[in-house]
């Protein structure tokens, strides 16, 4: 029973680290396309900075707890950057639509983890809740920036959300 609980927490940490890594790559792709040429560049850079802080925290906890990273990290490197670059190439509102889709899934994912953790790991729960609230801020900022006005928003959002769910499922195990 204890081994299963430890394995579940390791899986949790692994997938969260992979997700934060993917987020840094998405924002890197968006910034590569938009840079400082667009007013949204500053907002994206702020979000990227927060994601970097989240990634650093999960990197640290992985090292402390001996959790291996996902073997899919090289894929998330390329896929995340490509998703960010492609959505930004469509336009700033599509980049924001990407943020809304990703953060919608991450909010749900973090909520599930918090429910699963209960009171078993207060330090991890506190960190996840702090990061979840920042992810919700990203989503709200992206909505305020016109994400829902992106071309083919329902289709774009659905495809990105499906990809996020698949990435979560794969990174838990691989």
What would a concise description of this structure say?
This protein has 174 residues and is mostly helical. It contains six helices and no strands.
Could you characterize what this model shows?
There is one protein chain. The protein is mostly helical. The two termini are 22 Å apart. The protein has helices spanning 2-34, 40-65, 73-90, 92-117, 122-144, 153-173.
Average residue pLDDT: 90
Total number of β-strand segments? 0
State the helical fraction.
over 70%
Distance between the termini: 22 Å
Order of helices and strands: HHHHHH
DSSP strand content: under 5%
Q: What secondary-structure arrangement, pairings included, does this model have?
A:
Elements (H helix, E strand, L loop, with lengths): L1 H33 L5 H26 L7 H18 L1 H26 L4 H23 L8 H21 L1
Which key features would you list for this structure?
174 residues; mainly alpha
């Amino acid at each position: 029973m204890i081994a299963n609980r430890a394995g579940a927490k390791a899986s949790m940490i692994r997938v969260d680290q992979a997700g934060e890594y993917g987020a840094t790559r998405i924002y890197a792709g968006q910034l590569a396309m938009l840079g400082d040429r667009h007013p949204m560049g500053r907002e994206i850079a702020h979000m990227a900075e927060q994601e970097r802080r989240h990634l650093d925290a999960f990197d640290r906890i992985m090292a402390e707890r001996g959790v291996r990273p996902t073997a899919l990290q090289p894929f998330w490197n390329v896929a995340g950057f490509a998703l960010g670059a492609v959505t930004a190439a469509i336009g700033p509102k599509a980049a924001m639509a990407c943020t809304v889709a990703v953060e919608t899934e991450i909010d749900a994912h973090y909520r599930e983890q918090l429910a699963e953790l209960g009171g078993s790991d207060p330090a991890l729960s506190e960190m996840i809740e702090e990061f979840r609230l920042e992810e919700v801020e990203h989503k709200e900022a992206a909505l305020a920036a016109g994400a829902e006005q992106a071309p083919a928003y329902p289709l774009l959002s659905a495809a990105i959300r499906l990809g996020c769910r698949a990435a979560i499922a794969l990174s838990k195990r691989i």
